[in-house]
């Protein structure tokens, strides 16, 4: 089972950007942490600051044979119709994850262009959110 863990704009800056909100760990640290779980799945990591890069990755859903996605689109969450349309175009099942609790932040972060088409949303649990989403995908696959 292949799962795509996709991080969007500015998430390559984790560990450097707004540490009070996002913590001091980097994206590499997140990948290492997920790898250390030794989940029964093939996890592919992808990060891009470009809308085109993200859309092309999502379009490759069928040919890459992804079972599910764990997506954090960063600021694109609150604005991006094109990425939403790409997901709908290829029917890519996914969980939406946010490191911070977007609902305790500025009002523009309370809107998501993705939550209504996600299987589920996990916000405010830091890196644990990615882990919870992955565990849930595996549990659902096993029928529990
Ligand atoms: C974020 C929340 C977004 O509002 C913000 O633009 C990000 C990160 C999060 O993971 O908490 O870049 O998606």
UniProtKB/TrEMBL annotation:
Pfam families for this protein: DHquinase_II (PF01220)
Keyword Amino-acid biosynthesis found: yes
Active-site residues annotated for this sequence: 22 (proton acceptor), 98 (proton donor)
Coiled-coil positions: none
This protein's pathway: Metabolic intermediate biosynthesis; chorismate biosynthesis; chorismate from D-erythrose 4-phosphate and phosphoenolpyruvate: step 3/7
Enzyme class: lyase
Keyword tags: Amino-acid biosynthesis, Aromatic amino acid biosynthesis, Lyase
Binding site for substrate: 72, 78, 85, 99-100, 109
EC number in record: 4.2.1.10
Its biological purpose: Catalyzes a trans-dehydration via an enolate intermediate.
Self-association state and partner proteins as the record states: Homododecamer.
Protein name according to UniProt: 3-dehydroquinate dehydratase
Organism per entry: SAR86 cluster bacterium
């Amino acid at each position: 089972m292949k799962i795509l863990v996709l991080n969007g704009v500015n998430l390559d800056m984790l560990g450097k950007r707004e540490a009070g909100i996002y913590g001091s760990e980097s994206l590499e640290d997140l990948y290492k942490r997920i790898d250390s779980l030794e989940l029964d799945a093939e996890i592919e990591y992808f990060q891009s600051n470009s809308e085109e890069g993200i859309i092309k990755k999502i379009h490759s859903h069928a040919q890459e044979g992804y079972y599910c996605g764990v997506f954090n689109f960063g600021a694109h969450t609150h604005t991006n119709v094109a990425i939403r349309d790409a997901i709908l175009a290829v029917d890519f099942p996914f969980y939406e994850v946010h490191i911070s609790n977007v609902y305790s932040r500025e009002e523009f972060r309370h809107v998501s262009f993705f939550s209504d088409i996600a299987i589920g949303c996990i916000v405010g649990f830091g890196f644990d959110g990615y882990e919870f989403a992955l565990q849930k995908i595996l549990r659902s696959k096993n029928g529990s």
